[in-house]
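Q: I have 219 residues here and want to know how they pack in 3D. Can you give me a structure?
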Amino acid sequence: MRILLIEDDIVLGAAVRDQIASDGHSVDWVARLDAAGDAMAGAAYDLVLLDLMLPDGRGIGYLKGLRARGDVTPVIIMTALDQVSDRIEGLNAGADDYLVKPFDLSELSARIGSVARRYTGNPNPIITHGPLVIDLAARSIRHDGKPVQLTAREWALFEAFLSRPGQLLSKAQLEEKLYAFDAEVESNTIEVHVSRLRKKLGPQIIETERGLGYRLGKP
């Protein structure tokens, strides 16, 4: 997924960025709400991680503005504000989840996955696709009962196809999902990852529309 992190704490922000990047997601990190607005104007994000107390304003106001404009991007609030009234305000403003600092980074990963599954319309973490049994929560795959090991980047690419079954995804769309703004991407990176997925999961797992893009193959 392409994730926008809005957090002004340098230490926490770096830890969160590294955690979600290790999960295979691309992440753009900003420390101010004005920078967040610029980022969202220039990219399509799958999820936003939002701190509530920022140098140029409160995250609640920013969230309310998103929802008022009809933006339905999933938002997980991360904050030290732990009163019940704070949680109610955040959820009523349109947040999809509310995580109180300090939190375990593995819990953050789990919550990101849970929110993402709800938005794709399938809260069940277990998906069967032909000979594959995919556990989205555990980030594991079995092919005819045998475990298959994917790298974080391979998993992120495969997850992009799983979340849009039957939809043709261009190379540019896939690069946007996998890499942050400042990442250097080789011209054949997507082709290499697709080739590796086919070797591990089966040659028909991803179909190619020459010159247009890729889609998840039929089960």
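Q: Anything worth noting?
A: The two ends are 23 Å apart (CA to CA). The chain has eight helices and 13 strands.
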